Amino acid sequence: MLSLLSKFKHMFERPYLKLVKTRIEEPRKFIQVILGPRQVGKTTMVTQLLSLLTIPNLYESADAISATNSAWLMQVWESARLRLKASEATEFLLVIDEIQKIDNWSEVVKQQWDKDTRENVNIKVILLGSSRLLIQKGLTESLAGRFETLYLGHWSYPEMQEAFGWSIEQHVYFGGYPGSATLISDEERWKNYIKDSLIETGISKDILMLTRVDKPALLKRLFELGCLYSSQILSYTKIIGQLQDAGNTTTLANYLKLLSDCGLLGGLDKYAGDIIRKRGSSPKFQVYNNALITAQSNETYEKTIINPELWGRLVESSVGTHLINHSISERYNLYYWRDGNYKVDFILEKGDKIIGLEVKSGMKVENKGMSIFAERFHPEKVLLVGTGGVPYDEFLKINPKELFY
Known about the structure:
The protein is α/β, with parallel strands linked by helices. Helices cover 47% and strands 17% of the residues. The strands form two sheets. Strands 7-6-8-9-10-11 form a six-stranded mixed beta sheet, sandwiched between helices. Strands 2-3-4-1-5 form a five-stranded parallel beta sheet, sandwiched between helices. Helix 4 links the parallel strand 2 and strand 3. The longest helix has 22 residues. The radius of gyration is 22 Å and the shape is globular.
């Protein structure tokens, strides 16, 4: 274990590490819940954290445990109590990975955490999970007032650049999965890794094994279609036309929500200035990581970067991935806007402030949408990214929350 820890010590550290360390070093107050898609470095970050702390600790993963085995969770907790006693330390840290795999996990955690609180047992807890939906359901049902969450999104351009020396073109094409970075010189191998280890595993382990899905083939097909049309608006009627055995729009909207909660594919609602009309609009598909598009494409990196149309779509999608990942951690809403032929690519909303953002790659024609949107909704600011505006590589380096100040 020690050699593994020392190896991680020298690895790239995501900015979240300092924050988690500060929270764990505070007096025991809240359970720390770390959420995020597969393969974004949650476990790596915790391993790095454990090497930096002097607190005795226990790390366990529920990944291979049977879902019905909630007794396993109690045993792990009991083991932490015994080790705290034996170590004669004043505090202990218990880390449980892939917590959402255990049925009824939140009830057991509540029971054990409250028992420690009553009996003055100083066990601090970190829970990790890769399905936002299942974790948040458990938190709101049982653990109200007992936890803080931290969302780890896909890696940003500055992170991939610092950790692997990637150019902006590499980030736009190969996305932000750190585990795949060493494979990009053999593109076929890279594509297979993304498809088998991330897409297939993510859908089967994080969705199909944990949620009731009546039409798994439909969910997979929706995902493929959504990747193909990332950053484009597609009405549910058109989607149904593209899918055989499509079910109804409610089913598709639910499947899109499941894919979004696992950090794979989101569907942005149309901005309408009032809640009622935002719902039920045609979704604008948006992947959380551009690798999900290019791994499923037959085109190569070399051919894509010289094809203006393909490249323009990937650039717009990479701006979208940047915005959708930060929308969760920075807690702002992300929409698109459209009225007839007029449209605005992305609308950011935080409190009473709204920002309109248009992405322009060389291939895009003039769009009067922004001025019509500004007239109608009086946004805080409007922004052009790409040709004639903020260069997209510069935009991908800023945290979108800064736009609100």
